[in-house]
Amino acid sequence: MSHISSLTKYVGNFVDQLYQSGVRHIVISPGSRSTPLSLTFAEYNRFQIWVDIDERSAGFFGLGIAKETKEAVVLVCSSGTAAANYFPAIIEAYYSRTPLIVLTADRPHELRDVGAPQAIDQIKLYGNYVNWFHEMALPEETDHVLQYVRNHADRAVKKSTDLVKGPVHLNFPFREPLIPDFSLSDIWGGEDSRFLMHYRANDTRLDKHTLADIYEKLRSKQKGMIVCGPHDSPVLAKHILLLAEAWNIPVLADPLSLLRDIRGGNETVIESYDSILKSSKVRDRLEVDFILRFGAMPVSKSFLQLVQERNIEQFIVDEEISYRNPSINGGAHYIYGEPIAIADQLTQLPLSFDLNWLAFWQDLNRETKDILRSDQSLLTEGTAVQGIQSSIPIKSTLFVGNSMPIRDVDTFWFTSDKEVTIVANRGANGIDGILSTALGTAATGKHVTLLVGDISFLHSINGLLMTQNYDFNLTIVLINNQGGGIFSFLPQAKEDNSHYELLFGTPQNISMEKVAALYEIEFELVTDWTQYQEALNRSYQNGGVSLIEVQTVRNENVSWHQSKWQEVEKNTLTVLEETRDVR
């Protein structure tokens, strides 16, 4: 792929998506670095093009069009002070809530901060006076990047014309040569790349035209699934289950979805989907028609791989305009509104899908759980999760650390009716502050169980100072594998690399018993399943703060997990072969 080809198709897809998303007016101020944008807008031949040599005037001219049409207007300029001259109009657009899309060309990264001409710092140039800013990636023509550029073109329109309208700013770094080649084929992308639809609820509910459109998109499909990621609504889970029962489709339930510990249970819930989807062979053979997602993106990496590898039609429900869709490949329809109300409205649609498809997932889920439960008497990182689930008090809280603990909970925490609330810091997925967040959760009076790895524990150990001044009921299950266990599952561990232990393994060799003594909390080191269960039960009965240490060996833990996943893969492929009509 040549630079010119990548540049042409990258900008071509961006320009086409702006038109598809409703833009009609382009105000261009001439410049060299903005050549790819200016020429491509003109070549597209569907926009009304306006040329104004003065960026300050151009900004206000575009503002006037936007005020009159109530539609987003695009401004295009070169790099440097040209972009700065838009600022007065952008301030006015911000305060008057007028939709503008500001496209500033820029030098590529290697020409910044080295004295290159017309290279100023354009990152967040307009500060808080825009609804959204994004630094665009350098041009490529891979399917992944072309979908990315479409998503961001569409997002720019939606962010500028949101309920609170205003300007948005996209900064485009371009390398020379700058002239696109319009003789190339497929410059604008095919019809299948124009996959983005947005539906907005009015007064929390979708109108009849929107519901009719969703119905038309779904009525010919047979093999769909609901995916429920992290969310914090205790009521939403029950409404999602009613929707799944009405439609006869499985619910892939993230551990933070509040669907795995709901009283009464539900046979549509598939909690072992991460293990099932780990195999690329399985993902290749599953014929999924559509995905309806509530909540944030699930913890499961294998689900992310499924939607990255396959062009599956997705419907993503969210309270507000957002783009929580890191899969990028394959666009998505976004349904904005109150999720409970939307779930109820969708339940009323006269849709019902292939019963064999639901039965297939239910059987596969049961068999997968049997495999994952097969050696519960062993004390491993996986069975430590099952030990907590068997002992934890009803209506209590499980706080889960990031890295491997949340992934083991995803794999080994199965549905029950204990009504346990599972909580984790999955906003940014960091390991910092885990202990303090868990203690803050326990401050509400509930008994909280914290499952945490040794690095996360040591990283936030100062949080235990709070236990000296306040009373908490907190059971800490510490998985101590002498370092960063999650890296053992990643390619870094497979390379013959003498730096692995120093940079990734990071063994600490800290006595956890002495840590517990320092903070005057109860401590037990457990070495087998029986000891572990007894320690958990004592902690729950006695209350207060206690630390239970489970020591494991990293490479043995990897082998144990992989043997489970290989067995799941073998079983799943066999089931797929036996049920070709529903796969």
From TrEMBL:
EC nos: 2.2.1.9
GO biological process: menaquinone biosynthetic process
Domain Thiamine pyrophosphate enzyme TPP-binding: 435-550
SUPFAM superfamilies named in the record: DHS-like NAD/FAD-binding domain, Thiamin diphosphate-binding fold (THDP-binding)
Record domain Thiamine pyrophosphate enzyme N-terminal TPP-binding: where: 14-124
Record key words, sorted: Magnesium, Manganese, Menaquinone biosynthesis, Metal-binding, Thiamine pyrophosphate, Transferase
GO molecular function: 2-succinyl-5-enolpyruvyl-6-hydroxy-3-cyclohexene-1-carboxylic-acid synthase activity; magnesium ion binding; manganese ion binding; thiamine pyrophosphate binding
Domain Menaquinone biosynthesis protein MenD middle: from-to ranges: 209-400
Annotated cofactor note: Binds 1 thiamine pyrophosphate per subunit.
UniProt family annotation: Belongs to the TPP enzyme family. MenD subfamily.
Function: Catalyzes the thiamine diphosphate-dependent decarboxylation of 2-oxoglutarate and the subsequent addition of the resulting succinic semialdehyde-thiamine pyrophosphate anion to isochorismate to yield 2-succinyl-5-enolpyruvyl-6-hydroxy-3-cyclohexene-1-carboxylate (SEPHCHC).
Subunit structure: Homodimer.
Name this polypeptide is given: 2-succinyl-5-enolpyruvyl-6-hydroxy-3-cyclohexene-1-carboxylate synthase
Taxonomic source organism: Gracilibacillus boraciitolerans JCM 21714
Classification of source organism: Bacteria, Bacillati, Bacillota, Bacilli, Bacillales
Gene of this entry: menD
